[in-house]
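yo

u said u wanted the structure for the complex thing, so here. seqs first:
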Amino acid sequence: MTINELQNYKHMKITLNNRQEELKYIDSITVQQLIDKMNFTFKFLVTKVNGELVKKEERNLVFVQEGDDVAIIHLISGG
Amino acid sequence: MTFEEIKKRLSRKVVGIAGAGGLGSNCAVALARVGTGKLIIADFDVVSESNLNRQYFFYRQIGQKKVVALKENILAINPAIEVEAYDVKLGSDSIIKYFAGCDVIVEAFDRADMKQMIMEAVIGELPDKTLVTGIGLAGTGDSNSIRVRKEGNLYICGDEVSEVSEDDPPLAPRVGIVANMQANTVLEILLDKDNDNQ
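structre next:
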């Protein structure tokens, strides 16, 4: 990648768990890739994009877009 | 609002409680004490001696179905409460079946996979329904880490980090804090919704 290409490369700004995140040099990412990238290692997660549930089996199919509001909630045992 | 006014408003409300262990039994009792009209409670388990370090049951109830014992305890505190008790292991479909008519649903499971299941079922199938979950309550001390966080129609009560393990057991004080925080969140929602309607 040339300097020029790098400078023109898109970054993606999203809201993740109510915090602003800028994903460098990424213009397309699935929910599952975002989980991996942000190091959510808990086994049980619930994911939402713009308030809509993304079921666990859909995480490889749903893309996060610029400006999206993403929630990744991790579940731990105890009750 | 006076207690009489609060009771009057709550008397028309229905709260679903998914699980009758540490979170569910304590949350149900708190809601019953303040006069919540109807509680729908579902659990498949039986009271055991190891439950008594945190769950709202008595030694003499060991061996009884939890929903039967809990209904008995609720009515012993407040006979005016209507209790629907279901001895059933909940799944995505039965959650919708039992709790679709509730004003608010309380998640009170112990296992993380069950918490995921009810959250996906309610957010996916009943997106307008409010769900109050309990996440992170193991061990002792560190009360200030326990709080409530809102994520759309989902309220998360707990510290969100302390997982139950051999060295971090669930015990009455912290489980009780989270269970009562769930009950308090339910009251906030029920009394606030009424304000909006009037």
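The two ends of chain B are 14 Å apart (CA to CA). The CA atoms of residues 59 and 173 of chain B lie 19 Å apart.
cya
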